[in-house]
Amino acid sequence: MSLTKKRKKELDQLRSAAEELWEEQQDLLARANAVAKEASRQVGHLNREEVAPRVHAGYHQYVRPGMEAPGRLAGAAKERFVGDVIPAVGSAIGTAMSMADYARDARARAYAGERPFTSRKVVEEKSGRGAGGAVAVVLGLIAAAGLLYAVWQTFRADDELWVADEEPASPASE
Length: 174
Description:
Blueprint: H1 5-112, H2 130-155
């Protein structure tokens, strides 16, 4: 393809204008980056000097009292449950089991021809963990699993949060 001298001259002028525009844009981007960096630095100062103390004070004034009240309520409920409910339930279960054992023993003696109230047999204690121990082990395993999940959520990598900066590509010079 042959071009006239006039067209070549116009194309050269256009190319030089484009290169000049490209250089001006690069200078503008460099200045914009400097301004953005300074703005970021100023925002950091503002955050440390103004925002963080206000957030800290607001947390201690509004959020923390609200968070401590349920904790105290839960602690009182736990003490009440452990101190009153569990012993009462255990006592009721123990009484029911002892009555069942006594009834079973009385039936066995009556079947054998003995009178139920004449003699008492000493009850041997069972050895082993029992139902309460099994419940405690299961609750301990659930608590450990919850703790491990919280630690995993804390330390897992969030690769999607970071975006790499890319350099602007320069046009091909011909």
